[in-house]
Specification:
about 35% helix, alpha+beta, about 375 residues, 19 strands, three-stranded antiparallel β-sheet
Length: about 375
Amino acid sequence: MSEAYAARRDRLKERCTASGSATALISRPANVRYLAGVAPHGTVLLLGKTEDLLVYGGPPEGPLDEGRPDEALRVHTLPSPGGDPAVAAADLAAAQGADSLAVEEHHLTVTRHRAIGSVAPRLRLGDLGAAVEQLRVIKDEEEISCLRIGAEIADQALSELLESILVGRTERHLALELERRLVDHGADGPAFTTSVGTGPNSGHRGHRPTDRRVEEGDFLSVCLGATYRGYRCEIGRTFVIGTSPADWQIELYDLVFASQRAGREALVPGAAYRDVDRAARQVLDSAGYADGLPPLTGHGVGLEIDEDPQLAPAAMGKLDACVPVTVEPGVHIPGRGGVRIDDTLVVRPEADGGPELLTITTKELLAL
């Protein structure tokens, strides 16, 4: 991976040079991780004029379970605790003879930005913007492999839960069990707070589990994700508990399934983000569910669970190959519940078989 990290830093340096800055300070943790291999708390990365440095506030506590820093980087540890690695990195950039420094203004606080300017007053500070986030959108095959393994872990945890007795158990208990199973099967941990919704809570995007117990005839919606080597994936499914589904449940499920399928089929290189959203959304709109739909149909995943691109009505941009995204339409009917179906896929050209589905748990409406 050392060559991959170096290539990423080189691409970023090219962007910096083109914008008039010879050096850059990376402070957002996911961006540091992307360029350096690790990002212990508070660590920053300096892309310097003479050498690149990973600047630590102090010796990292505990094992580096997220990996090891790129061996091509020199680690600089502050001599005393309590210092700010970002401020120290700016001082190091000035010592290397830099006259400008691009920083991630969207991540730095005003106080921290002022401190950087104060310690190195001769440095011209510029805004790096979302340059690193833009580089992160397209994944290499090593990154996709991590997402694929994470998806396998999430699928396995979910399939095991479906084989257990569910009636009478609380949403909170089921969510905790799913998160335990993720770790048991090799995940670093959950990719986000696991959502389990039953009955009137089902199908609600971002629902936090409660002490409501699973009952016969309920819709049960589950959304979970695994983190593997820092990369995060997502899966969401909806089931019926204990009995054959009611007519309204079948009708609603089939509608959301059709919406999700339309979104998945729209994932082709060159497709506009908004067109993918429209493909899924118009299925639900035409059935009378325009009001109350989630603000987006899906989003990118990677070192963070919610990355660019955003598949939303006003989103600008087009998909590239090797971009992992979720497609996650849903309908929630207040007081009754609803359906959400969520997959993680990788955009692939038609010649390579079209979008690669990473989360493979069945989307058949099962009665558990």
